[in-house]
Design goal:
With 415 residues, the protein is of the alpha/beta class. It has eleven helices and 13 strands.
Length: 415
């Protein structure tokens, strides 16, 4: 099984290695993503699965059985960030196929269909919006997103149509609730919680969706050599303590509430950005995440109050725009327990945890009972050319998924 997993993962990454210096660049709705999905479809057909694509380009590999039961589904994505790794998304896709291979080789006969779904465009790197394929499948895709542009001026609608699909028909990818019974995604952890807690794999309780703010400091430009220090409205000087405030306040809230919250000033631009001109405008992008939505709001409120204080003391006007405020997603308790029991049966120890990163399961959970399991990745590294998951951990993922799928489909009902 381990050799098969590595070989098929290389096929889907269109490479004879899984770690290379330049990584993998396979962004959503590009020919590279399409080629990877074609490889997924070929592997699925070799396993005897029925393969189809929906109106959004999501590929669905189905182990069909007689009867009208909703399918038990698993899956992930094959697109990457620029110069990303081979395992983010790919691990979930290959382990889903591997689980079906394992069940077929054991002569298991499911009483309801099993699907492996390869979603389109999970990463946000190209258009600034994530999980496009699963948004379409769950019926939460906003048609206005078609006007979003990548760095080359290509709109999302144009990219979709460049791969043979029709943007206006993306809504037809929405699946009726009765078509699926439940959904489980496998993913590399992208962190070190599993290893640090001495466990084998992670079972996720909730996904921390972000509040994202754009904070603009509007000062006054002037000559750096002739403007007295006490007559300045330096936007960058005003922003500097604000950046430290975000870091320090996030740490304080973690200590005060005993819950995980992260807040990051992750982008910063200064204008006119000239050596001899006092910075007039600085824009900071802030990403706030926690599974606890109230804690996210406490952080956002603290930022608002600090901005007012800095504005009053410096004379620099500060504006705050809310770019995103998505409620965090709590996953299904019953499925989480089933994933823990799958590990018990296979002699693997589960770590119950939250996810700080978003995944396709967020959208699926809006309609269907859903779960998320993590396998370790080396040094917690992801979105990087050196991203790596050990073949033993991939095999563990297959065994966990196979056990879950077997239990969920043995009697034609989940659980």
């Amino acid at each position: 099984m381990k050799n098969w997993l590595i070989e098929q993962l290389m096929r889907m990454n269109l490479s004879d290695v899984l770690v290379r210096p330049q990584g993998f660049t396979r962004e959503g709705y590009t020919s590279e993503e399409t080629e990877a999905i074609e490889a997924f479809k070929a592997i699925a057909e070799e396993l005897g699965l029925e393969v189809s694509e929906d109106a959004a380009g999501n590929a669905i590999a189905r182990w069909n059985v007689a009867g009208g039961h909703g399918a038990v589904a698993t899956g992930s994505h094959l697109d990457t960030v620029p110069n990303g790794g081979a395992f983010d998304g790919g691990a979930g896709v290959v382990c889903g196929l591997g689980a079906i291979k394992m069940l077929k080789e054991a002569d298991f006969e499911p009483q309801r269909p099993i699907e492996v779904i390869c979603f389109r465009a999970e990463e946000s790197s190209r258009f600034g919006v994530s999980t496009i394929g699963s948004k379409a499948m769950s019926g939460s895709l906003d048609p206005s997103l078609g006007t979003l542009e990548d760095q080359y001026g290509v709109t999302l609608a144009q990219a979709v149509e460049g791969q043979g699909f029709v943007w206006q028909e993306m809504v037809n990818a929405k699946r009726p609730k009765e078509q699926l019974e439940c959904f489980v995604e496998l993913h590399i952890e992208q962190g070190m919680h599993i290893v640090n807690h001495g466990k084998d794999y992670g079972v996720v309780k909730g996904v921390a969706c972000p509040i994202r703010l754009s904070v603009t400091f509007n000062g006054k430009a002037g000559h750096t050599g002739t403007t007295p220090m006490d007559r300045r409205q330096d936007a960058l000087a005003a922003a500097a303590p604000f950046i430290s405030f975000v870091q320090e306040t996030a740490l304080q809230l973690n200590d005060a509430y005993g819950k995980s919250l992260v807040a990051t000033v992750s982008t910063l631009t200064a204008s006119p950005n000239s050596m001899n001109v006092i910075p007039q405008t600085v824009t900071a992008g802030i990403d706030i995440r926690s599974v606890d939505d109230r804690l996210k709001m406490k952080m956002a409120d603290a930022i608002q109050n600090e901005a007012k204080r800095i504005e009053e003391t410096t004379g620099v006007a500060i504006g705050i725009e809310v770019l995103v405020n998505n409620p965090s997603v709590l996953l299904d308790d019953t499925i989480a327990q089933q994933l823990v029991e799958a590990g018990d049966h296979e002699a693997y120890m589960a770590h119950r945890m939250d996810s700080g990163a978003g995944h396709d399961v967020m959208n699926m959970a809006q309609i269907w009972p859903s779960g998320l399991l993590f396998i370790p990745c080396k040094d917690g590294l992801s979105h990087h050319p050196d991203e790596f998951a050990d073949a033993d951990d991939l095999k563990m993922g297959v065994e966990l998924l196979a056990r879950f799928l077997m239990e969920a489909t043995a009697n034609g009902r989940n659980g």
